Amino acid sequence: MSSFRPRRFLPSVSLLSAFEAVLRSGSTAAAARDLDLTQSTVSRLVQNLEQQLGHPLFERHRQKLIPTEAALAYGRDVTRALDLVQRASMEFAANPGGGSLSLSILPAFGTRWLAPRLGDFLEGHPGITVNLATRLKRFNFAAESFDAAIHFGTDDWRDAGHMKLFDETLTACISPALLEKHPIATAADLQDLPLLQLETRPTAWRIWFAAQEAAPPNITGMLFDQFATMTQAAIAGLGIALLPDFLADTEIRESRLVPLLKRSVPGSGAYWLVWPEARAMYPPLAAFRKWLGECLARGTV
Q1: Identical fold, 100-166+270-298 and 168-267
Q2: Contact 128, 284 (CB under 8 A)
Q3: CA dihedral 152, 158, 162, 165 (to 10 degrees)
Q4: pLDDT digits (tens, 9 = 90+) for 108-124
Q5: What is the number of alpha carbons within 13 Å of residue 24 lying toward its C-beta?
Q6: How many CB atoms lie within 10 A of CB 301?
Q7: Strand boundaries in 80-159, DSSP class E
Q8: Angle at 281 between CA 279 and CA 287, to 5 degrees
Q9: pTM (two decimals)
Q10: Residue 11, phi then psi, degrees to nearest 5
Q11: Residue 152 contacts by C-beta under 8 Å, 6 or more apart in sequence?
């Protein structure tokens, strides 16, 4: 795509801000209060934007402005663009010398794996600010302002670069109190116990039982959307949890959970760093990717 941007299709921030404020607040009077402008100024800005685009954005009925369907769709894009500009400006003001890395993380991975190691990266790159936000499911990079994401699964994120971190391995864990009530010597002893499940790992228990050379039972147990809550349920004795080793190891070491039978069973996917192709050479991302590669080489993942 050409870098030339026709002025007609690149309205000024003042025009877009006025339009977005009217769309959000429902009137030019409310938008004027939000923007600290006069109502007539807001009306003029909206009219100027309509003239620049060559199409009406609102239907005018007496004192009311009713957005067209096209304007509602346009407004969603404008809101994302203004949010992105605001966020970039805030990040630049906070760290004008280094840049920032906006990273989407999986909750358990971010808390238990990345956070304990992140200090090493920040110490080696003092000019870079890392911003973290959790996402449980895959998203469209074009619709979100992330530079990269931690993804579980395979290297199938569309239009993105991939860097494999490590394969997931799983260990079945039980609370000491529940184990005392229900001693377990073989996989068959799990038949009558609740097996806690994670939404994003629907085949995990089948894989685990196959590794124990046993047929999986009819799995009945609570369903969770995050490892953190499932872990706490297991600690409370509500069932047996199948946890990634980077999460299970801490609970086992601190005696909150006990491992069962064969440990570190290969799971159904791996952890990846993924990034939009257009951001591949962004310096903070390149530095983070290089640091992860060094961690992999040192065997510290």
Answers
A1: yes
A2: yes
A3: 0
A4: 999 889 988 899 999 88
A5: 15
A6: 13
A7: 100-105, 129-134, 148-153
A8: 110
A9: 0.67
A10: -60, 155
A11: 106, 109, 168, 200, 269, 270, 271, 272
**Whose CA is closest to 88, among 101, 69, 76, 79?**
101
The encoded tokens of residue 63 equal 């004192």
| Both tokens assigned to 226 | 């995050």
Residue 213: the pLDDT is 92
Q: How far is CA 23 from the centre of its chain?
A: 28
CA distance 227 to 106: 10
Tell me the residue length of the chain: 301
- Topology adopted by domain 100-166+270-298: D-Maltodextrin-Binding Protein; domain 2 (3.40.190)
CATH of domain 7-94: 1.10.10.10
Kindly give the interhelix angle for 227-235 and 245-253, rounded to the nearest 10 degrees: 30
Q: Is the pLDDT of residue 92 over 80?
A: no
End-to-end CA distance of the chain: 39
Cα–Cα distance, 286 to 288 (Å, whole number): 5
- Residue whose pair of structure tokens reads 């953190």 in the numeric block: 228
Residue from 248, 242, 244, 290 nearest 270 by CA: 244
Contacts of 254 by beta carbon, 8 Å cutoff, 6+ apart: none
Q: Decide: 244 and 208 in contact? Cβ < 8 Å.
A: no
Cβ atoms of residues 288 and 158 within 8 Å: no
CATH code of the domain made up of 168-267: 3.40.190.10
Domain spans, the chain: 7-94, 100-166+270-298, 168-267
